[in-house]
Design brief:
The structure is a homotetramer of 446-residue chains. Chain A is of the alpha+beta class. Chain A is built from 21 helices and seven strands. In chain A, strands 1-2-3-4-5 form a five-stranded mixed beta sheet, with helices on one face. Chain A has a two-stranded antiparallel ribbon with strand order 6-7. Chains A and B meet through helix 3, helix 6, helix 7, helix 10 and helix 14 of A and helix 3, helix 6, helix 7, helix 10 and helix 14 of B.
Chain lengths: 446, 446, 446, 446
């Protein structure tokens, strides 16, 4: 890291003038001046007191001051071009270990050192996560903030290494300050207040979360599991606050029905994969009768894909008839009409199997949830008809849900086959559906 | 990070052939093959299981296998030269943010990703610290390990950021597994067993340590403090296991008499500065009557400096007489002979003040302990005659010890003056001694 | 304790025949047989296994079996009359220490030993508390259960000695399993769900509870405190979930607005007195600016007393006018009619002061809450007009509430004067109101 | 409890005048006056402040003041004779439940209420335990303290009910303040410092203790266990600090080699029985391969019994020869002389089996340790020759030790047979030895 000369570069020439003006701009520049101080000599000896001061200043920035602050951060705390140039040329001249070390040092952003020093203040880690959340919120329209994001992501990724996280069971003995975050963050199946939450923490359920020691009140990611006999085929009984509590000792399956990231500022720093596997191991230890680990997952993009697939379907010999059948989906409440839904059932199941299994030009299926689980080495196990008859469920996936199975013996093999060769792991049932799909009649590839 | 092509580079051409041969070499290569696997695709999905396996393999390496292992690590997991070259040339062609990001990625060692993945296994952090300890132990004769050390130091420095450490008081309620590490590591004033330790943890003493949450049984650094009336002038009463326990409520001074790093594998990752200041704040909160924070420190290099200063002394007008006086130090037990010691006293005090205060060409005094405290912003306060009459104390510093004072209001100012202008903070008393020093008659600079 | 001969006495002659019959009776007798076994030799050596068995049996008793079970317990486990007789006669013959010891042993119920052994099982203490709750619920109609209650109360009183309780702060970090008990038990000012509770645990509030180590999820009693500027005069702002959170550092008064016992089975084992004083001390330590500890208390019996006082009022010279004025209370919503309430105000305040201060034949005022606080050494400080305009508040006390002040320097003195001489501690303001009361014109006694 | 009139009785007529005189006597009376105050009205309302004061006063009593203090306690806080008389006569007149309750109340010592109130102060429980320790130390020469002891024992027995104790594993993570108490108290096999202790806490050992929540730093009783293959036959390998650490996973036996009470003030309040059984259960849960729970126990009274048995042996036909053989025990070091020890072996084993198995007029064997384990339901399993060759071992039991086996299925049965019928549970091997004993030739009774 080279801190020597970045002071001169603080007010770069591409900081939007309008932003740097006025009170917010002044506030941003004041905060930035403290930041400079923090990575100077003075910062080194001040212990944590200067870091506290900077943090406090940042936390009081008015909303309008953050954009100019990030502008300054993106410009001012970058590596010094002249040093990068010197080091790059030296290495190109002679690719020695010393020259490599010099180059590594020259290209590291002073921002990283700034963030490391900010982290020394109490609350520093949480503040940096919040800062990244703000950066991410504005990065679309401020492409030049990418370097700020990259530096934050690099550090946070290193600090939130799995080795530093603890897996904790969440139950009714957990502090309310943690539980309320589950209520706030649960994205897949909304938690409707404390009674709903309590049911999800009863003895026939399990909930686990990763925590970092420095953020004991903040679950990073949590997973909700139902202990069931057989794989759950519909989500409603799992979510019913009034459902009877079953004996967990008689369950043979752990159904993972929701996994939720709580920290937007840690986006892209992946824990989900690790969490699923570790929870599976943990449950296996505690409940040896549980033999199967399966998800009950949404298929968020199915209906959208279906809409796009219309031309392809139309081109089939019986295309017109198929489209007519699919047209019934437009009628509100079609799924409550037994005749309609029966007629649609086999067509939708086979089309959906194709949606999940068919890989695109990037070698992966279109569905984001499928990609996540397939990357983790899971297998597509079973499609479930009318598994989620909520408005959203009907809207997004015609009420279909899917079970992915985590067979811990197979996940590595599945993962490699998927990543290297684009092979999608799917059960016999799924493959049969896929082969039966009208769109597959020409060429099947599973 | 670029992992794509490093496999081919594993067996580089400067790995000592002798090392790579035989059983240790084979063991090293086997471990290395697992390491490669860990940073490949497979490592990404295996959760922590592969990391555990690699760790276990490493921990079973025979002693002789570590050198070839580090050789392989130094060669094989370096950035790919062709990618560095491409990225460097691109950046030199156009110094855009994108090209900088590409260059940053190209120069990062795959080793860092390897270490991050190793860290995911239980015990991973401890293993990496131990690994660095081995690297440091052999680095003198294996200069090419520097890159391995640099990568470990970079990661450990980031992970052991102050923000992640907890300050804990050590007392008689602390688990034995922690206390025995104090006994093992105390380097300044050896702890002679559990009774000695217990005395150092009585109510008129304080002991604090930094811990990392992932290593709850391992103090990283600890400091021993005596609560006293006035600054301690001699060390013996502080170390006497049979000394009477005083009322801590009546103390006005906290005398820091020992600070010890416990983790050789964290060498160079500095906590000492932060520990002293935070302990001072903590004591100030608990015991508002304590007004002064001072060390009672050794002067390890004084006699060696004195030997080197002989020619300079000889050149003084009364040089011969002074050397004759200093010659008395050669007689064993001189310090127990009142006449001798009185005669030497003022001469040694003044010479020692010069030793501590005089800065060399690097702008700092020669004494390592002095440099540490002056960098931290402390002030040299008082020299203490016959403060440490142990054999070692007589040998190294003619029995002298020194108090450094931490005035929390002044430390930043002192530090800046020291670092920027080479100004050494010293009390009036010290300055007077310095001026009285025969060597200072020509030019004084304090 | 004499266990030798109680077996013969199990089926005493006054067990209601109807109860001992049928299935519940059989269940009760089976449980009782296990109880006998538990206090026999076998119980002594079985460790806790037999105690677990008995407990499990008891916990499965059908509701109808409890009455016969208590009947058997009341009869069967009483001291053996012949032994009491022998010991009593011996002591009357010679009042020696030995004979006293023999008498003490003879009169102790075997029930106590039974309960002590039951307590050894996991969950035993909770089960005994629950058992006493059942006893108390039926004791009115089963006077012969008094001995069972007395033995349970004696043991629980000893076990829940203040020395074994811990005072714990309740806040939003408290486990949900504890918090839900606050919601369930709060009797004074109902907690309407989790949002209401959260407001009561914000930084300008304090909530403390006593816990016993063996029941970590069960608050025994809790107290709710608002940190305020000045003594609170109305309860509504304290209970408003949307009220702004004030800075606790600026408060000068701790207003205790609710104190609630959670364990019906510990009725009569008093903690309230101790809790108020210890919480006052605790708050004083944490917030030195808080100088006053006051309650904001209901006056539950005022309107009932007022109704009874009608004849006395009628007899006054202006009795008819006064009664006419009081008649306005019968109109619903009188308190929202400014004219009405103003007219009533001084009359009600003075009558209420009389209600609180006037002692009856038992040397205490009629109001139960007043008696509690006066016994604890508090002082009646201030009456608050329209302090509780809830339906219940209007109904019971015409909307009046009262502040009792705990002056820790005075509580012992106040208590003694109250208990020994029936002196009620009251502020000048209260005394003035009392003297102004129409009923006091004849004879005042404060 | 009747507190009304005890004040008058404080200075009873049998307090030794000499004790009540002088400074210690005055101190004792002052403390006693505070005690009276504590159980008066004032004590009821003072919260814990008065209890603290009394406790502090008691803890500052000079040694010489305790005897007069206990004298006063024994006299002054006894039940009021007139009330006991009235209640006794009433009950004799009519043995109603009310009269029984009155009698129970009348005979309870005010001392118990005093102790309960003292217990409310912080440190109260510990102080009462220490007080009982003093009472027990002087009770032989002060028989009138028995009532004080009885009241303390009654309360402590109730408070230290198993239901309130926690079983905790002791290992090297345990706080030093607890570990040093093990070193201090271990009575069976002295712990020679911290290194010795550490070996006893390694992974092939287990150590457990009971704790009461109010005394977290004070183990009440602890047990040391070695995990072994087969029952240990000699104690030396178990005590060797340098012994190799074995794999606990391969052990089939838990050998309990030491059980130690730490609190003299809790004498007679038995935990040992419960501790052994609970530790056996705990080990069984953690290490399912462990199938046998056995002690390796001393036989403290064997040699003394042997000396007393001389006349009986002499009367046997070959009595003279036997005595001559036994005479070899008088030679120092006989056990290191192979010839001697071989000759003695079978004789001593058979005599010792008789010593352990033979019951006296009280229906129990003479050996105190045997009585303890037999009462607990253990079985005498095996005698071990030269199992303890320490001086003490040779002195007390001619080097013999014995294994008692706890078969959890059998302990209740064994216990009942032992307590009711005086039947001693012994292995076939023991019975064979017993039958072979020269003293058994006439009549065997096992």
């Amino acid at each position: 890291m080279a801190t020597g000369s970045f002071f001169k570069r603080i007010i770069g020439d591409f900081v939007r003038p309008s932003r740097a003006a006025g009170r917010p701009g002044r506030k941003a520049r004041e905060a930035m001046a403290l930041c400079e101080s923090l990575i100077s000599e003075r910062g080194e000896v001040s212990g944590t007191s200067l870091a506290r001061e900077v943090l406090s200043e940042c936390q009081q920035l008015p909303d309008a001051a953050w954009a100019p602050f990030f502008d300054l951060l993106a410009t001012g705390f970058s590596p010094a071009p002249e040093e990068v140039r010197g080091a790059a040329e030296a290495w190109l001249g002679a690719a020695t270990a010393e020259n490599l070390a010099r180059l590594q040092e020259a290209v590291e952003s002073p921002r990283q050192e700034l963030f490391r020093r900010l982290n020394m203040a109490p609350g520093g880690t949480a503040a940096l996560i919040a800062m990244r959340q703000r950066v991410l919120a504005g990065i679309r329209t401020n492409a030049h903030w990418k370097s700020v994001d990259a530096d934050l992501a690099h550090l946070l990724g290193s600090w939130f290494n799995r080795g530093f996280l603890t897996l904790q069971r969440i139950d009714w003995r957990t502090p309310a300050i943690v539980l309320e975050k589950l209520i706030a963050h649960e994205a897949v199946h909304q938690i409707r207040g404390w009674d709903d939450l309590r049911r999800r923490l009863e003895s026939d359920r399990r909930c686990f979360a990763f925590f970092h020691p420095v953020l004991p009140d903040e679950p990073l990611i949590f997973i909700e599991v139902a202990l069931t006999k057989g794989m759950s085929a519909t989500v409603r009984p799992l979510l019913d606050p009034a459902a009877q509590v079953d004996d967990p000792g008689r369950a043979d399956t752990a159904t993972f029905y929701s996994i939720t990231n709580c920290q937007e500022g840690l986006r892209g720093i992946s824990f989900g994969n690790l969490l699923i596997k570790q929870v599976a191991e943990e449950i296996g230890r505690q409940l040896p009768r549980v033999q199967r680990y399966a998800t009950l997952s949404p298929i968020p993009g199915f209906r959208a894909w279906l809409a796009e697939a219309r031309p392809r379907i139309e081109r089939l010999p019986d295309g017109a008839a198929l489209l007519a059948l699919l047209g019934r989906l437009d009628a509100s409440g079609w799924h409550r009409d037994a005749k309609d839904s029966d007629a649609l059932r086999s067509l939708l199941l086979s089309l959906c199997s194709r949606y999940l299994v068919e890989t695109g030009s990037d070698g992966e299926p279109a569905d984001a949830v499928a990609r996540f689980h397939l990357r983790n080495g899971a297998r597509i196990e079973r499609l479930n008809w009318l598994a989620d008859d909520s408005d959203q469920g009907i809207q997004r996936s015609a009420g279909l849900m899917v079970n992915y199975v985590y067979d811990l013996e197979q996940v590595e093999k599945n993962h490699e086959a998927y990543v290297k060769d684009g092979q999608v792991a799917a059960s016999h049932e799924l493959r049969a559906l896929y082969r039966a799909c009208p769109l597959s009649r020409s060429a099947a590839k599973v």
